[in-house]
Each structure stands twice: as C-alpha cells, then as structure tokens.
Design a protein that fits this description.
This protein has 2 domains: 227 residues, Rossmann fold (3-Layer(aba) Sandwich), CATH 3.40.50.300; 113 residues, Nucleic acid-binding proteins (OB fold (Dihydrolipoamide Acetyltransferase, E2P), Beta Barrel). 23% of the residues lie in helices and 33% in strands. The longest helix is centred in the middle third of the chain and has 18 residues. The radius of gyration is 24 Å and the shape is globular. The two termini are 35 Å apart.
Length: 364
C-alpha cells in the first residue's frame, strides 16, 4: 500500500485565488481519510493535487518517501472514483470493469478472471452483461468502485462518490465501501460534504474551511473535543447550540442566563470581561436534574418527531436552541420546558479567536 505526506501544500490559480493554504498531513499506510467541509473549502482541489490532476503551486507531496509533485497519475499508482460514475454507456458492466486493464494490454483471460472476482466482491455477478442504462444508481456506483478496485492500485481517491444516490442507497454503499477498504487495504482518501459519511467511514477526518485545515482527528475526537467553533458547528446533526455572552466575576451572562464557568474552564479569571460562546450539543441535555449541571428555562416553539428522537426548537428570550429528547418525554408546543446541560457536556469558546477555552472536562 502507500504512505502519503503533504507538506505545506498550496494551490493558487492564475486569477490569484488561493484555494488551499499550507496543507500539512501525514496519511498512514492503509488508512481511510475523509476530507470534509462546505462547498468551496478546498477539499476537492486537494484531492485533485494528490491525484496529479492539478499542479501543486507550492509545497511537497511524497508517496512512500518519494517526492511525487512531478509524477503522472499513472506513476502515482492511483485510482479515482468520481461523483458522476463516468461509465462508458456503450460498454457492458464487464467491459466497463475491465476497460483499464484492456488499455494496459493485459491478456483477455486474465481480465475476465479479474472481472469475475471483482464482480463477486461487489455483488455485480448477475449484471455483467447489462449496460449502465439498465442499472440503478447504486449499481452504477458499484461499477465505478469496481473499475478502480480491479487495478489493484495502492491509493484510492473518491470525490463525493455517493452524492447522486438516494438516502437508502447511500447507507448501503457506505458499508460496502468500508468493507471493500478492509478487504483490500488500500490507502483511501474520501472527499465529502456529508459529515455523516465522514463519521461512519473514516479512521481520521480532516475538517477544512476556506482552504485551511481546521482540525484533524478521529470521529470521536472531532465530536467530543472540537478545537474551534467551526468544527463544533460542522460535526454533529443537529448542530451544536451556541449562546454568545460575556464573563464577569467568573459568571457567564447571556440574556436571562447566568452560569458559573469555573466547573468547566481551567482558568476562569483569564476570561474576565471577555466575550465567549457557551455551547452544548442538542442530544447532551437531560430532562431531570442529576446534579453537576446548568439549568435552563425555555419556551417550546416547535417539535419534530423523528421516530427514535424528537427535535425540540425552543428559546429563552432571543436565544434559540435545538434540543433532542426522548419522544415519550417530549414537551408540548407552546409549553415551558426546563432542561439541564451537564458540566461534562458544556463547551466554552473564545468569541474573538473562536478557539476552545482550555478545560479539564472529561467528555463522556
């Protein structure tokens, strides 16, 4: 397989647009990495530089310790799966799967053997004689993955491969791609704007915004220990609740809310007179006071029953919040609702720097 190193990678287009800023990342052999972020954050541009489809303006890219900036895509040992499938409509599934091997001049018997083996892994054996127009979106995506898989390359690059599928197909393909990765072991870099895909599939996630890396970590680390407001708001659905206020005498004030921050901040005196953001995840609240928590009184505006949970939209004055509660304990719309934020689930960010304030809280 392959170990990848990106050192101070930058991409600046001829019009002066700086798409990627000082991108630094070590990718382990066989690791599954997801690049996530909103549209225009630079994740696809980074993937294309790794693939050799975009020139690197500045910085160094290494594959197994060998400088790869000037290598062609073929020399890099890379296979790429695109959002659009990019299947040849006039070729059957079998011909699409074996097309790359045919171009390499590999013997037809060997190609057929590899096609059969790949089709078996992907559940495409019964569809080898069909054309793309006779396949579902999920089946077309399997063919696209299989065309990359059959080449036995060291590096898989996937650019939004599931965005054209419906919700049920995406769930199925997520598990299939992860299973394929486990069986093949190729180093995989996967680009998506869908944080659910990133959380469920990756070994580590790279969160990007405006061409810069915001945080790199495991799904657990990004969810429970976000380093800044962007990561905290991007990871998690519904997003984390942010309440902006000020600190005086160690007390956080926002509207009618008054919270003593000393249980969740390492040095509360350092925040004196500062603007901060008090934050908590919708699913972290409790409906009963179990101690070591902050009490919040709110008014319920809307409830959304989702089956296993209910989203409650509530407010305290001008402060709006989203809460996730047990459907059997959901409050009525228009009612008063008292809930509690455990100290271990509370976050404090500096409003100016947007970085998390140092704390000793163990998230559980």
């Amino acid at each position: 397989m392959a170990q990848l190193t990106l050192k101070n990678i930058n991409k600046v287009y001829p019009n002066g647009f700086h798409a990627v800023h000082d991108f630094n990342l070590e990718i382990k052999d066989g690791e599954f990495i997801c690049l996530v972020g909103s549209s225009g954050c630079g994740k696809s541009t980074t993937l294309r530089m790794i693939a050799g489809l975009e020139d690197i303006t500045a910085g160094e890219f290494f594959i197994d310790g060998k400088l790869a900036n000037q290598m062609s895509s073929r020399e890099r040992g890379i296979a790429m799966v695109f959002q659009s499938y990019a299947l040849y409509p006039h070729l059957t599934v079998a011909e699409n799967l074996g097309f790359g091997l045919t171009l390499e001049g590999i013997d037809a018997d060997i190609i057929d053997e590899k096609v059969q083996a790949t089709a078996k892994i992907l559940g495409l054996t019964d569809y080898l004689d069909r054309f793309p127009r006779n396949l579902s979106g999920g089946q077309c995506q399997r063919v696209a993955v299989g065309r990359a898989l059959i080449r036995k390359v060291r590096i898989f690059l996937m650019d939004e491969p599931l965005s054209n599928l419906d919700a049920k197909q995406r769930v199925t393909m997520r598990s299939e791609i992860k299973q394929i990765h486990r069986s093949v072991g190729a180093t995989t870099i996967y680009v998506t704007h869908d944080q659910t895909e990133a959380m469920t599939m990756s070994d580590r996630i790279v969160v990007m915004d405006k061409g810069r890396i915001q945080q790199v970590g495991t799904p657990f680390e990004l969810y429970f220990y976000p380093k800044n407001l962007f990561v905290a708001g991007f990871i998690g659905e519904p997003p984390m609740n942010f309440i902006r206020g000020t600190v005086a005498g160690g007390i956080f004030s926002a509207g009618e809310m008054r919270f003593d921050l000393s249980p969740v901040v390492k040095d509360v005196n350092a925040l004196e007179g500062r603007k901060v953001v008090f934050a908590f995840r919708p699913e972290a609240i409790e409906t009963e006071n179990k101690g070591l928590s902050y009490e919040i009184d709110s008014r319920v505006e809307l409830c959304e029953l989702l089956g296993d949970t209910t989203n409650v939209y509530a407010n305290t004055g001008e402060i709006n919040m989203i809460l996730k509660v047990n459907p059997h304990k959901a409050p009525a719309m228009g009612s008063d609702f008292k809930f509690y934020v455990p100290h271990k689930a509370a976050y404090v960010f500096d409003a100016e720097t947007e970085q998390i304030v140092e704390n000793d809280v163990e998230r559980r």
